[in-house]
Amino acid sequence: MSAQFLATDSLPFCKGCGHSLVAKGIGQALDAIQGLSPRDVIVVTDIGCIGIIDKEFATHTIHGLHGRSIALASGIRLGLENPGKKIIVLLGDGGATIGMQHLLDAAHRNLDLKVIVHNNMLYGMTGGQPSSLTPCGYKTSIMPEGKADAGIDLVALVAAAGAPMAMRTIASAAMSAQIGDLLAAEGFAFLEVLELCTSHGVKLNPGKSVAAIAKEAGLELKILRNPHASPATILTEVRPSLLEKISPIAREWQRGLPWTQKADRSPSNTARRISIVLAGSAGEGVQTSAEILAQAAMSCGLHVSKKGSYPVTVGIGFSMAEVIISEAPIRYTGAGSPDVLLICSEDGLEKVKGLLNAKGRGMVYLDATLEPAFRRFLGHASDASLQIRAYREIAGAKSALLAAVSHYLRREGELPLEAFEASIRRHMGEKTNLDAIMKDFEA
Amino acid sequence: MPDNSNRSLIDGSLLMVEAAAQAGVDSFVGYPITPANLLYLYSSKRFPLVLPATDEITTLQWMSGLSASGRIPMTATSYPGLALMLESIGMAFMMELPMLIILAQRLGPATGSATCNAQGDLLLLRGINSGGYPIPVFCASDLEGCWIMAAKAAATAQTLRTPVVLLTSKEMAMTLRDWDLSSLPPLAKGAVKAFNASKDFLPYAAAPFGAPSLDRAVPGVPDFLPLGNEKARVRLTASTHDEKGDLQHASPAALANTARLYDKIVLNLPLYTEYRHMDRKADTLVIAFDVTAEAAWDAAEMLEGEGKLIDLLVPGTLFPVPPVYLEIASRYRRVIVAEENHDGQYRKILFGEAGRQGVSGVNAVGKMVSPLDILKEAVR
Lengths: 443, 380
Prior knowledge:
The complex is a heterodimer of chains A (443) and B (380).
Chain A: H1 18-31, E1 41-45, E2 60-63, H2 69-79, E3 86-92, H3 93-98, H4 100-109, E4 114-119, H5 154-160, E5 165-170, H6 176-184, E6 189-194, H7 201-204, H8 210-217, E7 223-225, E8 273-281, H9 286-298, E9 303-309, E10 318-326, E11 340-343, H10 346-356, E12 363-367, H11 371-378, E13 386-389, H12 391-395, H13 400-412, H14 417-428, H15 434-437
Parallel strand pairs in A: 1-2, 1-3, 3-4, 4-6, 5-6, 8-11, 11-12, 12-13
Antiparallel strand pairs in A: 5-7, 8-10, 9-10
Helix pairs in contact in A: 1-6, 9-14, 10-11
Chain B: E1 7-10, H1 12-22, E2 27-30, H2 37-44, E3 49-52, H3 56-68, E4 73-77, H4 79-95, E5 99-105, H5 122-126, E6 137-139, H6 143-159, E7 163-169, H7 170-174, E8 176-180, E9 235-237, H8 252-266, H9 269-272, E10 275-278, E11 284-288, H10 290-305, E12 311-315, E13 317-319, H11 323-329, E14 334-339, H12 345-351, E15 359-363, H13 371-379
Parallel strand pairs in B: 2-3, 2-4, 4-5, 5-7, 6-7, 11-12, 11-14, 14-15
Antiparallel strand pairs in B: 1-8, 6-13, 10-12
Helix pairs in contact in B: 1-2, 1-6, 3-4, 10-13
């Protein structure tokens, strides 16, 4: 059998390094697989001493970042259309330390990767610093007195994450069969190879064998299996254009009277534009109410924008929406001081207090339950721009803002009520308390 | 009277996702973050392969793996996520892996305010790679721009084999506006040029600059073969390497390859320079991007109503800075750069820390730059 996968005469590792033994074992194991071509194998290498081996392999190779080789390999597996390709990931104990989440995630998902961690118990390339896999008492350059805490039992951890196969061995010249088992396994398979770094480990820990260190650290040479691990599923589905799912809003209604009156237009901007703020509580349909209003305006041939504002908790506290309705296309979507404020909950009132005090404040439509709080804040002076009605009591909490919108539209005549009704139906179907929402609050 | 033929209430996120899909993006890797969540949501309904990652480092690594295996992946994030992605973006740049990253800006520093708009990530994007090797960064400055720039960004990622960022912001990505979908122009699908020659495959060998190409190769861009292909061995690496992909310290061949990476992005800039210049020979130019460009258009209209003209430059390609921007700016006595950050990041990138006479900024933090803000500076 000729060695077609690995050029073994120029391995780049220090004399006596276990990495050479592992590499030869991989090469031999690959050579032993009938019909396997180097084009069928992708070797993914991490940073560290192991990362300089790529050019010795005749396979596809990819060499990425420290600790990320398993995540990179996962992406390759998720993207490859041919599941028959073998992906072998080579990393050290340092890479496994940084990328432990990637390791556990790939094991948990049971992605078809064959991962070999070369555990020489320290970071060799950077001078012999300890990793999370360095055993207790093992001496390294920055801890000559020995590491204080135990190394992580990676085999146990990977098995606990659900890997079908996780095993540990000691680097030797006779490990190709074990690597062959790794390569032959279904799905995710993991091998931790214990080694001593000849440049740093041997010097600082003289006279200790790998086997003795493993025994002292409680790192058994073992194979753990999860025979019932499910194969990874990678779902792909051709999906249609998002534009196909959008319902256009046709112009069906005439604009309200204010849009045809020219008197209130500023000389510098002939396009009329009004901003409406809807303020309420999370879960009470604030954003939907705003969209219904915006689409009602669109159905009258007007331009609109709508944006939401709410705390990051989303499901609690205030919910506020700004709707701008304009004759001209809307570019800048800032509302500034709103022309109309619709407020239907304490959360909403608290949120828009600053706007209520603003100079040139517009009309306010306030739920009746909020009047005491409103008065405490703004006093008892009568105010023609303030409308107070029992929107919540009549339409319910989730439709209170819609009721306030209908009141505003009926009073100001910005849009025909029919357009608003149609927009509600478009969003909510017939199962809505339309009578309560559309009640004549002016009567 | 608006055209009512196909008007819909729509946000920029939907247009960006759909345009990216039509331009060739075929997979999405997501990690949730506000204000990029709509991009994730729409992507989950559009792309054939949608993968929820465990974090943003994983996101970029998965995307790199997908890209190396022949897919065109996309993600969407905001600054905290981008910060985690940086090292991997450098890796993908070095490996020459096409991918699209949509960056929806929010208010920083750090976690900042997730639901507050900002335009504060320019400096980070300009210096995204160690050594100053730029990647293309596009920006959408209105809803039509969301459509066109997303497609351009996706196509450029494929043409140049590189990670590309499409910059947007909370306001552009999340605000709903009415839009006539029938006005959207058709988009061309991008493509990565595959290796088809009979010669030996060198994963980082590219057509030279300044010489005619027989096979329509873009200068500086290597032909592509995916990992796992049957035709030739592929060797990819993030470390300094030669044409073969062999890791090298700082050999002339490896440094030449690294220099090519710079040239690939910068010398091909004419292929992807996108901007709008409203040129009415005014003496004042306003430069603005993203939603601030829309405020600038409004300001120009308001000023015109008062009998004063200003001109506008709206960059579609933010980085590398196309030289034409500075040439245009040099024609104006006054230049105002309006942007939603503390001290004028794009202004300083364009004109340096020292600036130049006649250059000023309009800036805002925690609120949008308004047309009035720009108008006041223009008439000052």
